[in-house]
Design a protein that fits this description.
Elements (H helix, E strand, L loop, with lengths): L2 H22 L9 H18 L6 H24 L1 H8 L3 E5 L2 E2 L1 H6 L4 H10 L8 E6 L5 E5 L22 E5 L2 E2 L1 H7 L3 H9 L9 E7 L4 E6 L8
Antiparallel strand pairs: 1-2, 1-3, 3-4, 5-6, 5-7, 7-8
């Protein structure tokens, strides 16, 4: 296989794989279930093996991608319409902590040991299994946690405090580059941004690794690049 033929197959294969992945939806790269993992793995293997096999034509690569994509798409539609098919292909959520009690049998059936469960619980911000009232092992391998009432987070409504309007922070500088689209969305310009930086004794935005504007607080949060603060 010459370099030109390999390049053409790589380009066509990349475009085909990208289109199929987009059509199959975000579950192929996020919140992946065992079935999604298998389908993604085989999809990549089909393309990889086809590209480096001299006997496989470009048509064969596209045919394999399209056929596999159609089968996966059909199965996705089937699981959306048939409840029973979801459990067969995607699995079911499993309760592993019930009313503060660790359920050993569901853990064992899910091939999950206590160390792994502790790690998943810690990722949710709880460092003791005894702080959890309910824990559910989801189909994608993550754990959803309902803490015990004494460990629950107090919110403003609980304290009868006025509710504040929430807003997303807007990134204005990332990796020492100004995000002009976000500035326009905010209704500001570079001159305004430089003024905000000057208020924090920063004369050149190129030393800023990341900066975001908090709308609710009307405040610019800045992280300087390591080289600008002497960190090696």
């Amino acid at each position: 296989m010459d370099l030109l033929e390999l390049s053409i197959e790589l380009i066509i294969g990349f475009i085909g794989l990208f289109i199929v992945t987009r059509l199959l939806g975000k579950t192929q790269i996020s919140q992946i279930t065992p079935f999604d993992f298998i389908s993604s793995l085989i999809l990549g293997e089909l393309l990889g093996n086809a590209i480096y096999d001299d006997k496989v034509s470009i048509f064969s690569i596209l045919y394999a991608l399209v056929l596999w994509g159609i089968m996966i798409y059909a199965i996705e539609l089937w699981t959306q319409k048939k409840m029973g098919a979801r459990g067969l292909l995607e699995g079911q959520p499993v309760i592993v902590i019930h009313k503060g009690k660790i359920l050993y049998q569901p853990l064992k059936k899910s091939k999950l040991d206590l160390n792994q469960l502790q790690g998943l619980i810690r990722q949710k911000g709880f460092f003791s299994l005894y702080d959890v009232e309910y824990a559910i092992l989801e189909t994608n391998g993550t754990v959803s946690v309902l803490p015990k009432s004494q460990n629950d987070i107090v919110n403003r409504e609980d304290l009868n405090l006025p509710v504040k309007q929430q807003s997303l922070p807007i990134t204005l500088i990332i990796d020492r580059e100004i995000v002009h689209d976000n500035l326009i969305e905010l209704g500001k310009d570079v001159k305004w941004l430089k003024y905000q930086l000057q208020q924090q004794n920063i004369g050149d935005y190129s030393i800023v690794l990341h900066a975001e504007w908090r709308i609710a607080e009307e405040r610019l949060l800045v992280t300087r690049h390591a080289s600008a603060i002497g960190v090696k």
